[in-house]
Amino acid sequence: MIPSPRTATHTRPAPAPHPLRFGYGTNGLTDLRLDDALALLADLGYDGVGLTLDHMHLDPLAPDLAARTGKVANRLAALGLGVTVETGARYVLDPRRKHGPSLLDPAPEDRARRVGLLTRAVQVAADLGAHAVHCFSGVTPAGTDEDTAWKRLAEALTPVLDAATRAGVPLAVEPEPGHLLATLADFHRLRRTLGDPAALGLTLDIGHCQCLEPLSPADCVRAAGPWLRHVQIEDMHRGIHEHLPFGDGEIDFPPVLEALAATGYQALTVVELPRHSHAGPHFAEQSLPFLHRAARAIPEGPEGRTP
């Protein structure tokens, strides 16, 4: 039985004996008011939240953003929740085009709208004390050659990285299946193109590793360790980009969490179930015990969990 977010006392369960910190993404709780979603996650014992800026949850385009952000910051602090800011809202900029406009669009003014959203997200993240700002490249537009797309991406991200540097908030780019930047190798191509800026980090989605990376998810974590700034987690099948509840896919999670703990990663590992929002409270309640059980299966010792 999930406690009512309006009446619970927010007594947090004892932490699991490992260094990992788990969150849940608000893009999987879009049927809840943000305040109710945050209270729910605190009641369930989550360490934090992946906050997707969207029209129903801290709308980045509505008036008085700074004041509204301040209220959310106070609420997060009162609940003891960490936060990462995510920017994957489907229709926040264009009500007709999913994830549009992108950083790769042909029209400079369209790319500028996405850049504006991301720089605004950086400021929100700074005001919230967030661990990172997440973003992705977007799909290569029809008729755009690969070299042009990569050039647009690098140019568009430059002012965002400048803003992230000034704010002291890492920008964590996510390899996304079907996008220009789809794999870890693509992330490193971008990193080299931009001259390896300190503000540029990586969002690693564990399901995406299962979906299309040549390495296993655990090996992806080990390879990505030095650049990890944000982690998303869910189950998935090989070759099928469908975010699944834990146990419905093929991933063996204890080795993944063991590898993640061994990297020294200390920010949030956020459950990413954006297509399960209709039953979001149920999946939030089920996901955290699963992750704690998987984490408890990490062997003791220098390569496993800390005693």
Strand order of the largest sheet: 3-2-1-10-7-6-5-4
Mean pLDDT: 93
CATH superfamily: Divalent-metal-dependent TIM barrel enzymes
Major beta sheet summary? 8 strands, parallel
Tally of discrete structural domains: 1
Helix/strand structural class: alpha/beta
Give the tally of β-strands: 10
Domain Xylose isomerase-like TIM barrel: 38-291
Region (Disordered): 1-20
Pfam families: AP_endonuc_2
Biased composition (Low complexity): 1-13
Please, could you describe this protein's structure?
It is built from 9 helices and 10 strands. The protein has helices spanning 34-44, 65-79, 108-128, 146-167, 184-193, 206-212, 217-224, 253-263, 280-296; strands at residues 21-25, 48-52, 82-86, 133-135, 171-173, 200-205, 228-233, 235-237, 240-244, 268-271. The strands form 2 sheets. The protein has an 8-stranded parallel beta sheet. A two-stranded antiparallel ribbon has the order 8-9. It has a single domain (21-296), classed as Divalent-metal-dependent TIM barrel enzymes (TIM Barrel, Alpha-Beta Barrel). The longest helix has 22 residues, at 146-167. It has 307 residues and is α/β, with parallel strands linked by helices. Strand 4, helix 4 (146-167) and strand 5 (171-173) form a beta-alpha-beta unit. The radius of gyration is 18 Å and the shape is globular. The protein is 40% helix and 15% strand.
